[in-house]
Amino acid sequence: MVHAQSFGWLDTVKNGEIGGTEGKSKRVEAIAITLDTQGLLAKDGSELTGGISYRVHAQSVGWMDPVTVEANSTSPASMVAAGKYAGTTGHGYRLEAIEISLTGAVAEEYDVIYRAHVQKIGWMGWVKNGATAGT
Q1: Helices (H) and strands (E) in the chain, counts
Q2: Are 11 and 37 in contact, with CB atoms under 8 Å apart?
Q3: Fewer CB within 10 Å, N side or C side of the chain?
Q4: Nearest alpha carbon to residue 120 among 81, 100, 94, 101
Q5: What does the CA dihedral 122, 86, 14, 81 come to, rounded to 10 degrees?
Q6: With helix as H, strand as E and coil as C, how does 33-79 read?
Q7: Tens digits of pLDDT across the chain (135 residues)
Q8: Is this model's pTM higher than 0.90 or not?
């Protein structure tokens, strides 16, 4: 779920859908990410444990503290309501970069792959597992 300039919090997206806007020249200012592992099992047949951790670089702020969430523990909307998201709202600062990592056992079995769209550059290359996407 992302907070976009003049739109506020947008609907939740998942599985490769684009968070933000296209063709409207609106900056993304904040993001809330959760991880759903329900129905996924580890190679040994046990339930996967762990979660997701991410941090953003915001304009005029720099790298912000990471947000870490256990898998299946909450929804993006609940995180926003609790103020647990990365970035800022109400300040007009764009997100310039993001790093996303899986945690715990899920990190041993899966990769998280993502990319960023940068103003005047376009889509950057794909990165994974904590690498920086953006500028």
Answers
A1: 2, 13
A2: no
A3: C
A4: 94
A5: -140
A6: CCCCCCCCECCCCCECCCEEEEEEEECCCEECCCEEEECCCCCHHHH
A7: 999 999 999 999 999 899 998 889 999 999 999 999 998 888 889 889 999 999 999 999 999 999 999 999 999 999 999 999 999 999 999 999 999 999 999 999 999 999 999 989 999 999 999 999 999
A8: yes
